[in-house]
Amino acid sequence: AKAQHRGSSQYFSSAMGTDARERFKLLKGLRAGFEENRLFVVYQPQVELESGRSIGAEALLRWRTEEGNFVPPDQFIPLAEKSGLIISIGEFVLRTACHQVKRMLELGYPDFRMCVNVSLAQFRHPDFIATLQRALRDIGINGHNLELEITESMAMEDTELVMHVLAEIKRCGITVAIDDFGTGFSSLSHLRQLDVDRLKIDRAFVREAQSSTAGSTIAQMVINLGRGLGLTVIAEGIEGEEQRQQLLALGCHEGQGYLFARPMAADQLEQWMEQQTQ
Ligand code: C2E
Ligand code: CA
Ligand code: CA
Ligand code: CA
């Protein structure tokens, strides 16, 4: 079975999780891929649920191997985190996304909001804030066009540090979203302490909301929690019109998902934005 799947992402998913040697090989490939520019960033638009108005995009990392296969980020990002490679890869994503912001500003979207995922290892790194400031300054954009996404579990792992770094981030004018919200069991009091701007409801809740009453009750509670804290609530993984309407009815402000657009290359994003404003 291994030989059959060699090189495909299935091969990676079945074999890489357990075997240390295979993981090492994957990491070696990732390192080479990074050095040889086989990592790139795609963008998935985000919209206002009520009006359909486009508000920005999330930057998502892609790795295309030398053989031309795509390895899913869920598989290589954990490796990059463990090995420390995420520090340089994360900076690459950040700077690429900032360049794209610059481009969107030039195209006439002054409020375009670019969301960038950051790992705990990046957050913990003593140079993280300097890296952010340098990117903004070098590329010549404002903090308000940039949003960082940190996962809920990450925010709960090291609250002291996270609170401190959040304050520094906010000082740069950058906003922050809590990603995969609802999966990390954070308490209300915990959340209140975190100075964030947006809650991003995990795809699992969006799916469940449609399939059962219990699911929609939970989705309602998660949305209410965010609204109650005065935060903007965005749902990810919206695939159908019914889901959009349901989430809108539940009080969700914004959305992202295949219903609106798939992650796409920079030039496609520019076209997409232009179509939206026509
Ligand atoms: P995430 O941050 O939760 O990103 C959302 C994922 O949902 C993306 O998967 C996106 O392609 C997918 N998605 C969006 N809309 C839909 C939909 O309507 N239906 C379905 N089924 N899926 C949808 P992707 O790109 O494979 O990324 C997976 C994860 O990898 C991300 O989850 C994020 O945790 C991580 N990741 C991606 N890029 C980066 C990065 O630059 N840095 C870090 N630290 N993590 C990243
Ligand atoms: Ca995200
Ligand atoms: Ca997410
Ligand atoms: Ca997710």
From TrEMBL:
GO terms for biological process: phosphorelay signal transduction system. One of its GO terms (molecular function) is cyclic-guanylate-specific phosphodiesterase activity. This is Diguanylate cyclase (GGDEF)-like protein. Keywords: Phosphoprotein. It comes from the Bacteria. The keyword Phosphoprotein applies. Residues 23-277 form the EAL domain.
